[in-house]
What does this fold into?
Amino acid sequence: MKRRDFIKTTTALGIGLTLSSKAVFASESKKELLPKKQTRVAIIGGGFGGATTAKYIKMLNPKLDVVLIDQHDIFYSCPMSNHVIVGLSNIKEISFKYDILQKKYGVKFLKKEVENIDGVSKKVLFKDGFLTYDILVVSPGIGFKYDEAIGYTKDVAEVLPHAWKAGEQTLKLAKMLKELPKGGTVLLRVPKAPYRCPPGPYERSCLIAWYLKTYKPGSKILVIDENDDVTSKGKLFKAAFAELYKDILEYTPDVNVLNIDAKNRVIKTSKGDIKADLINFIPDQKANDSAFKFGLIPEGKLWAPVDSWTLESTLVKDVYVIGDSANRGSFGTVPHSGYIANSMGKVVAEAIVAKLNGKNPPRPFMMNTCYSMVSNEEAIWVATVYEYNDDKKLTVQVGKAGGVPEQRSKIDKENQYSWANSIWEDTFM
It folds into this structure.
């Protein structure tokens, strides 16, 4: 099978270190875990990017030693997590373990929290030891911009849950919504772009509006957006706002948050103070904290720069950064999304296997597809194809490939479930 056909088929289904000397010297006194006996690719982060990379490297070259590292042994999918919040699904339906990757493909899984990496001696450092590698892939997910100046801290995030990392916070927001009094007010804040899953906040707004309309008569949801307009599928979402939730959902763009009073549940904004019974505050975002700790992000920047062809870090040799923490400006115009992380996993898997075989990495090719529910019965979608452009030296959208539907539909609700099952299977099974 040709490379392009391989990727298309599966998609449808010199060191510049900023590491501290402490990290380098710390590895000298630690014990080695899983002593390396063959060429090894270590992967930090078991989400859509990391798990896909592990699976596809083993598919491309089963002889390579692939170790997937994550501090959790269960992954909770952000795609479809909005369904859990409003009771259309349960948390088990979006939960995945790494058993199949281990048994079917021979991926080794290490449940550990990474303390740091040593890019000089090629070691992943843990509290109780280290793991050596030949190639390292870092796919740690998204990070949040806490801002004490406006009163947004990690403690406040527990009181005003963002639920932008699926799992515990998903359940917390679902519980708070269920306990909302009839006639209550929900406030949802859309973060400033770029952020993980551009259509996600608007899907959640629609589903919460549907929930209020169905189970909490007299209630309403206020959606304040730091952006000057809906950032994805704008026409379709705004049609849903107006046609399905005219008296329930109030959308206001270009709203700057000035202060958060979590105790009294009041948000001070550039357009006035807003008090609500339940606040779903989705914060502005950046690369995951670990990417900063690993020395993969330049001082004063928020995302990890990578080579536009291979996705190798421009700061640390033989370390590749994929998923939400990678700097889109350095390699292309793709969004932060689970589907893109999955696509990036395939691109980097091919690049790594080619490199280890002494060959040139193939041309990058990615796809992004995303479905969004606007009620319990109807959904919308967007699909885009990306390919490397030699003139721009970036991965950019291919002409008119992909697109969006003209209107929401019931059939796309069913298609959404097929889409979700497809990416879950492609990543974890």
Remarks:
- Residues 3-143+287-363 form a domain with the FAD/NAD(P)-binding domain fold (CATH 3.50.50.60).
- Confidence is low (pLDDT under 50) at residues 6-22.
- The chain has two domains: 3-143+287-363, 146-283.
